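Practice set, problem 2.
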Amino acid sequence: MNHPPPPPPGRAGLHHPEDGPGELARWRLISLEKQLPQPRLLTGVGTPALVAALLLTLLAVFAFGYLGRDNETGVPRAVTDSQRDFVGAVARGLDSSVARSREELTRTAAAYDARPAGAATQLAALTTDQPKWRGVGILDAGGKSTVAAVGRPVTPPPGAATGRIAVPVVEGNDPRLLLVEPLSDGRLLVAELNLHIRTLRLDPKARQAVLIAVPGGGRSLVQGAPVPADPALDALIAGAVGATSGVPTATRTGVPAAGPADRDPTVPVAPVATADAVGKVGVVVVSLVYVPVTAAAVTREPLLAALALLVGAGAVLLTLQFGLVRPMRLLLVHAKAVASGNPVQGWPRTANAQVNRIASAFGRLAAQQRTTPAQRGPDDPAGGVPAGLVVVTAVVAVLLAAGGILATLAPHEDDLPAQVVRDSENQVAAVAGAVDDTLDGGYTKLALIGADNRTAGTAQLRRVLDRLLDDNRRFRSGYLASANGSVITSVGRAPLRPGGPLPGEGGVVLHDVQGRLPIVYAYTQLADGRSLVAEFDVRYLTRLLERVDGRLRVVDVDQRDILDSAGYLAFEQVSSGQVRTAAAEALSGRPYARVAEVDGDRELLIAAPVALEGSAAHLEWTVVAERPVTDYALPGNEMRQGALLVAVVAAGIGLLLFSWYYFFQLRPLRNLSREAATLAGGDSSRVISPRWHDDIGAVAVCLEVCRQAAVHGEQRLGGAARLRGTEGMPTAIMTKIPPRRKAGSRGVRSSRRGD
């Protein structure tokens, strides 16, 4: 408890009851103010309003900068993003092709180690019907003389290591990879692999070119328009290629120049080079495309968003200042006067209902101190707006500012740049090719195992199936089936295919169109009627669809959902007419890629057949991709996404404001209003304690002083108990001893103790 201040100079050290009433009330007020709780950091009644207004002001500054960040000249980010995805897909596909070719070469080396005399036959088996092999040869340990060869002569580069290496060779428009496999007898199996990329749909208007380059070396044009000789362009491509050593995909944008003659010459175009490394073989895929540069647009949205937030901040300050903060301060002044016995003229009339009720209660308590009960003032409080409604009004102002930001923004983009559509089409075609490679490649592996073990026993076939599943994540189970289709032995998970004869001699089969998931398997028949069967993992096939953003699904010829990246019911009929049209058109061999209305949304719809030839062609599957136009990084889309972010943050500030006031101001104020009404009604039995060290807590202390005065009399007002004597003994208020005299007195006392 704080002590009252010392008396002023010239006054006696003792105060007696006969002192004047004005002087006594003044000292009561001074003593009371020293006993009242003082607001601490972030606990004042006006602090939430100030904090919310400050946060809204900072958000306005952020919104102005964040929403206006895309109003600059440059290449649309949607194009650079699509180029990154496109080049990444091409690099992954080429890496997978190189890995498969490397496995084939390794298998040939193992066959040679087992039977060196059949070298010529083994090389012929490797290259038959496979034009990707430019030439294959078995050389001596020094790599100078040829033991056996097929195709063009191959020699390891000078100074190359004699171990298992891969050396890129880029000459003209014929890039290739030199693969070397050491053999058990010290010789070398050397092969030149053509680095072919699947046929791509490139935009001739964009003069797109796809190249294969070697960091620090040359480059070769694989597909697309020829690259003109230009030092600036060469430096741009070299910079993108060199940057792939530090990042997965690198993009470099050149200096804009005048557009080509077949386009609007007033719209400049900029060359964009995007590069991605192909695994660890030392080559890089590069895409060069000329993209129209968007002009800087002066938009009003960032300014309107900032103004809306500033208006919201001002509304919060004004509403809470006049509806809660100022009334509470007036109430506190009135409460101090009543609790210290100072004369008051009525009570303050404010805009706050709870404050008016408490002030009215103080007025009646003041009347009780001066008059008899028959002369009390009126009992009706002076009305006003509830404090909760004041806070809700301030929060609504914040929410209106957030809603105004969303309402004034430009609409979403409805169309996409042609380059984005073309890149997305190539990505979906790559996914369809990956599904085909998984199915056809799985069958090819199984067929090779069956050809090498046509008469093997059950134990031997179980071992080769076990190795097949270890080397291929695409399979979930493998088993040996009898002539009637029953399982003789199996590895991996339990087979899903029910018993029954297998159709034909081999291939890829979708077992049935019923059940909780599709059963897709490859099989090949052995010499004695038995068959090797390997079931594909549906989760693995579905993960292939997740390589492209959006929703991708595999649809069969009867428009049933076979696989889906967004969750699905197997074999459910496709309901969207646009999706059915896209799947049917793609299955006929015609490419399908356009922006269409799908289920009420503008989406980029692309369809590509899984296989038009090969072991999976008879499945008649189509990959259909759907992605909303709003997902692309176009200026309008990014503006709306940024506005949504700002609106959500503004709504969060409004929620913070309401929660802060509700838990720390409104609830204590309502409770204090009820306690004040109870006390003014004559019930003084309940002690009133402050809940928080703030203005409401100070009013609660004043109300408790008035309650004590009503119970024990006027001597309990303010600090009166310490100003008046009790039982005939006056209370002495001693003058505070200065620190220097304190030190001296301590020295005297210590010397006396020493004596």
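Problem 2, part (b): a different protein.
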Amino acid sequence: MPNTDKPKILVVNDDAASLLALTSLLEQWAEESNYDVLSARSGQDALRQVLRHDFAVILLDVNMPGMDGFETAEAIHQRPRSADIPIIFVTAFLADEIDRLKAYQRGAADFLFTPVIPQVLRAKVQVFVALATKNEQLKRQAEKLSQRTTELTATNKRLVREMEERRAAERKSSAKDEFLAMLGHELRNPLSAISSASSLLGMPGAGAESIGRARLIIQRQTQHLSRIVDDLLDLSRAMSGKILLSKKRIDIGPLVSSCLDTFRATGRTAGYQLSSRMNAGWVDGDPTRLEQVATNLIDNALKYTPSGGDIEIAVDTLGEEVVLTVRDSGVGIAPELLPQVFDVFVQGSISIDRSQGGLGIGLSLVRRLVELHGGSVSATSAGSGGGSTFEIRLPRTEPAVVQETPGGAVTVSARPTVLLVEDNDDGREMMATMLASYGYPVLQARDGLEGVKLASAELPAVALVDIGLPGIDGYEVARRLRQHPGTADIRLIALTGYGLAEDQRRVLDAGFDLHLVKPVDLATLLARLAEPAEPAPKAASPANA
């Protein structure tokens, strides 16, 4: 990104003399204050300029023929990208209170009255130029931070672009400055541990025990980095309304129980006094997102409860509501923090326990997802050291005629054959080795064409397909397999580094059954592979090809 980009100021005035006077004044200070000045002779011309450029501030004449200043300001602020551009109205008469109210309702930041006093004009403009320059500096800092690890580069750049487009004006606030500093802290900690462990692996005198510990550290810290990125992306999508729920009638009792089994399988619950009560609780919800809610609450209880503490998890039906309760005997929540515990970034300034790490957005994501389901979430605590109780309430629905078991509690049987289509040799070898260690017969293909050929010859039950493949990409692999009658019923799982809603839609449109974001958690992958295959409409018809 070029460093020569300067903040831009737009002057809008239908009177040629007034326009020349204002632009000439501003250009006197442009080199010293490091900004560019552009002009427009009408409201329509101003809208065209806003489509082409980002502006630090707009000086807008009130009285213009055709589209006046108020209408122009309203049109500028209707576009999401330009909604936060500050506008200073320029008027030749002293505006009364009604005119001022009308201007502020249309997004006015300030007024200037003609004849303009140069010192006043310069002071007002420099404030907004300084804010735009600060935002640009913050953007560059975020980009440098994203380069800390190649595994996070693409995701962090994507996140920065989303945040720039939606929330550029918010970066000037101190809360966002604190969050960026905390993000750097949270990324550097695991990266430092990974770097040290990697160096230990290369030392000639390192013993087997030390090497084993180093590998565990790398695995644990990589998972931590992945959780940070996933939380950031999920929260940004939830706040911008980009999460699309795939609802169906579901009993959340088995779903929560399955989440708990995953924590047990990974050893997270070792050393805790854990009790659960899973009654039937039928809701109309998205199983994946409800799993995310339950997982975040259980993870929160484990994180803030010392080893040996008590954790209780319950699902009950009370009247017209299904209630999920997670209670722990951990560090508790201070009274001043309790009302804000679900707010975004609240832990950036007042943390339950900063030594535990994390960005403090998991509970905010829980609230957003629960609200998308028409439910509510609450937290209670006796204070520091008194433990915490989190309660989720969702609207109850009638049980399904054919009850399903969400989350995948399955019977142990012969493992299905898995085809792994991945062009990265190291990643493919490690994934194949892990699956084989859990009893899955694994076939391997290094590109899309080889994957299609191997699938047609061997007819595996499941195919794990990377999207970014040489030759033909993962989307085309899925389309070809769905078109052929012999391979149309293979269960297709996409592996990709992109996790936005539009990426998921594209994967499903291509014919995949499931979309998993890299790096894929092994416990999650094993749970998905163990789920019984469901007949998909796209498998019966090649319409998606």
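Answer key, part (b): The first strand starts at residue 8 and ends at 12. Residues 347-359, 403-412, 536-545 have pLDDT under 50 and may be disordered.
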